[in-house]
Amino acid sequence: MTILKQAKEFDLRDNTIECDISYRGGTLKIDVSDIFPNVDEPIMGAYQNYLGGGIAGSIVGAAMFDPSELSKPEQKAFEVLKNRIKLYFYDLNNGGGDEYMQKEVNSFKMNQSLPISGY
């Protein structure tokens, strides 16, 4: 199986090592050592800041390793995983925020158009 196919089929739920998510955002960490066995800290995740006023910011994908050190095929797999993890985060907290967010910013695409931080 190619690394890209692995990334597309990787079970995020079974590899979740930390999940602290609420309507005010939070963090999610995923063990990706099965995909990137040669990386020192094979942890990827996502976070979302609370902007205030019941609005949560866009979801940001992150890693505890430098993806620029990966091979080209691994970098493509990294991008696939990063996007899947952000969408998984969104699904776990239904986008975050209060009733306004639930009614007016009611899709992953709309959520991603919000700022990351209020600062």
Q: What structural class do helix, strand and pairing data support?
A: alpha+beta
Mean pLDDT: 93
Q: How much helical structure, as a percent, in the residues?
A: 25-40%
How does the overall form come out from the CA principal axes? elongated
Number of helices: 4
State the domain count. Answer: 1
The oligomerization state is single chain
- Largest sheet features: 4 strands, antiparallel
Q: Give the SSE order as H and E letters.
A: HEEEEHHH
**Gyration radius from CA atoms, angstroms:** 15 Å
Number of strands: 4
Uncertain spans, ≥5 residues at pLDDT below 50?
Answer: none
The main sheet orders its strands as 1-2-3-4
User: How far apart are the first and last residues' alpha carbons, in Å?
Assistant: 43 Å
Fraction in beta strands: 25-35%
